[in-house]
Amino acid sequence: MDISPITDIPGRDRLLVDAASPSFTEDVVERVRAYGVAFVPGWLTDVKSAADEFDTAFRVEQGEPEGLTDTGKNLSRRYGRTVTGEQLKLTMPEVGERHKDIAEIFRSPALADIANGYLGTPNTLNRWVILTHDYRAADEILDFHFDDIGTLKFLVYLDDVDENNGPFEAIPGTHLRTRDIRIQEWLRLDDYNKIRFKVFSSFSEELFYVLYGQFKMFLRAKRVQFTGPAGSLAVFDTDTLHRAGYLAQGRLRRVARSSTYRGFYP
Ligand SMILES: [Fe+2]
Fold first, then answer.
1. Are 259 and 265 contacting, i.e. CB atoms less than 8 angstroms apart?
2. Over the stretch 41-63, which tens digit does the pLDDT of each residue have?
């Protein structure tokens, strides 16, 4: 593992991609490769009908949502509680059958090009589409973490997102170091529920320093917040430390995101 400090940590501007760029796909892939994350403000101009479908999907869902595990993980197979709301985990064929405007977003050829460019082929595009509805106020929706299984994620805001309704945040440039940590965790534990995915709260200051070459407060200070209008797109490697930030009382955030895996993912 490389343990030199991560020095190439850019600000927000370096991570932005213009939706109208003639080299859109390449621009996104270049940023995700270099920093683990790219953001496209206003990628789609109208997501109203997709947002309506989002509301319908939750309205028709039957039964009680599954709870979180004792380590705060959400392992729900379909309809589950999150710390600040609830989520629905759907397959792409399900979305195609029931929610055609949401399906159209994730069937965009640009997303397939980005996945092919970043992960190579074969990959399993949009294996899951997850609708997340956050509405319970919290200092943060979920602390900085990596996802246990590394994926490429496309995250689309269905509401305007400002600093008070759970903006997506990432610490750019952490994806390669964190990938090593994730693999070490799996080698040591081989248990989904035990993997320590929240690195700031799970690791001691000393261990954190050994792994990232800097203390927690300094790395946290490099976080970038992605505020933007409904229809904005974040593309990120889930090994990039990421979180959803502050959610104020009376505010909500609707997000549709998908996971794309390396190779074939049944
Ligand atoms: Fe995550």
1. no
2. 999 999 999 999 999 999 998 88
